[in-house]
Amino acid sequence: MNESKEGHLIKLEFGNQKRFGRSLLLTLLWCLGTASGAFAERWISHGPEGGRIVRFAIDPANPTILYAAAGFGGVFKGEDAGSSWRAINVGLGGSFDVRALAIDPVATNTIYAGSASGIETAFKSDDGGESWRAIGGLSTQLLDLAIDPVTRTTVYAATGAGVYKTDDGGESWRPTNAGLTDTLVFALAIDSTTPSTLYAGTGGGGHAFKSDDGGATWRNIGIGLSSSIFVLAIDPSTTSTLYAGSLGSGVFKSVNGGEVWTSFGVGIDIFIYALAIDPVTPTTIYGGARGGAYKVEREGDWRSISTGLPPNAEVWALAIDFRAPSSVYLGDYDFGAFKSDNGGGNWRAINTGLNATEVRTVAIDPITASTAYAGTNRVGVYKTDDAGQSWRPVNVGLTAGPVDCLAVDPATAATLYAGTFNGGVFKSEDAGASWRPINTGLSVASVLTLAVDPVLPSTVYAGTYGGGAFKSENGGENWGPINTGLTETLITDLAIDSGTPSTLYAGTSGGGIFKSENGGDGWRSINVGFSYPYVSALAIDPNVPSTLYASGNGLFKTDDGGESWRFIFSGLTYSISAVAIDPVTPGTVYLASYWSGVFKTEDGGENWRPMSTGLSVRTVSSLAIDSAGSTLYAGAVGGGVFSTALP
């Protein structure tokens, strides 16, 4: 399917657009009044393994040590040629989206990382990634980094606001954009023999630029280029030879320092995200693309080398072992890391410990609490039968994604529903072993939320992206719209009153909250005191159904079934993603944020405390608590599924 470069830029910057919003600064004040010996929650994660890998960096002194930029998952380190990984995010803060890595070529414990989001976006480690610190106050979107190989304290950063330069190892940065008419800079490359010569690949009409004076001035070198340039690679043996990967026109080559470009080879996808040149045989080049992995040798045509990769692989990272060039590492946009030991002849997954899967939703089996399901961005549904200790994919017949919501039949736990973006609803009647689409009457393909009637489980509700709400009374076999009185049709969440299932609530994007007291046949707005029109989460107290919580630029609460709302969490203005209410302990509520982890209240929302110990990432998208109130799961964008035992 043909996609625009603008569409790819949106994906690069924000990833999951379903619920992400522009976020403000967290200012949370809380009292440490915990009694001595109180139970301390700690999160652990065992997967699902894999996730988004957008960049590799190999230690120049020891190629068995490599680092992976995992977007919202932060940075991972492998010390055994990728056989196992561990997250190394201490000091990166909670709002990272790591897109860039660069290692000092001599002092290889010195590493730079760049984030595409956050209050500060440039980070540095002096101990091989074990700890990080923000450097230089750089706050713009950072997409690539390049270190001067001679003057190693000189580093360049490609950003959404042009090129920045530091001469003191990142302690201070300055823009260096004279002549750079395109300020969205995707890629940088330095001539290793003449480090004052730099190249920039951009997202504007100029496509590529060159500087001959260390970035002081730039000039356009886009002759022959026809699309935005996302990645650049310089031939290590002949530095006047360059390759450029574009967003829409394949690969280009220049043999005169970028002055003139020509299309390079046929047979490769037109959207190129990664290039790697064999350091021993520079005529051998690897390409990572929307359509998988490719290889070209001796100026021939590109050929696909995707054996062992997922069918819908999207390759964003490539790296070659400089001592054994037949060993190649590959990073997929959602399926994690892969390795080939025969020059791309075949690949195998190397995801042990790489818990960076983008999880969008979590659902727990209502009968067997150790069984849970996770819906992901592009890798379908995962299942655990041992309370999250191990996960396995359960996707037979699930032909669409991302999976934005899951619902389990409360009476027949083997029956599951999955709502997908662009694929409608799928149903499994064998605990996820197989799926089939159930979209008759469902006129909108993107389903953001599902709810099952707890008394009549054959009644299922679906909230859609732009089509309003739908209802099925035969387990999803047929659907019909239920939008009378519903003036906003982008439904972000649905909640059913377990005591009176004909009463349900809908959170919307633009219209606030609506309520139906007749099974969806009619709706009315219930926004008195609810001052924000965009709702990302709704939750009903299972013991007191007139009590609800709703997120809207903070958290609101009602004690009268939505007739009036009050603001109860003004300290957290980051985008709230989920709310979960303890079914056993009254007044205990959990809240998740896309940027700040998890928070807990034990007094119905009057006081909150952070509950993020053990969360290696803070981009939490979903929460689920078992019926006994003993285990809480948190799905994270870039972190897989975390779980914690509850008191």
Element layout with pairings:
Elements: H1 5-14, E1 44-45, E2 50-51, E3 55-58, E4 66-69, E5 75-78, E6 86-87, E7 98-103, E8 111-115, E9 122-125, E10 133-134, E11 142-147, E12 155-159, E13 162-166, E14 174-175, E15 185-190, E16 198-202, E17 208-211, E18 219-220, E19 229-234, E20 242-246, E21 251-254, E22 262-263, E23 272-277, E24 284-289, E25 292-297, E26 303-304, E27 315-320, E28 328-332, E29 336-340, E30 348-349, E31 355-356, E32 359-364, E33 372-376, E34 381-384, E35 392-393, E36 403-408, E37 416-420, E38 424-428, E39 436-437, E40 447-452, E41 460-464, E42 469-472, E43 480-481, E44 491-496, E45 504-508, E46 513-516, E47 524-525, E48 538-540, E49 548-551, E50 555-558, E51 566-569, E52 576-581, E53 589-593, E54 597-601, E55 609-610, E56 620-625, E57 631-636, E58 640-645
Parallel strand pairs: 2-31
Antiparallel strand pairs: 1-58, 3-4, 4-5, 5-6, 7-8, 8-9, 9-10, 11-12, 12-13, 13-14, 15-16, 16-17, 17-18, 19-20, 20-21, 21-22, 23-24, 24-25, 25-26, 27-28, 28-29, 29-30, 32-33, 33-34, 34-35, 36-37, 37-38, 38-39, 40-41, 41-42, 42-43, 44-45, 45-46, 46-47, 48-49, 49-50, 50-51, 52-53, 53-54, 54-55, ...
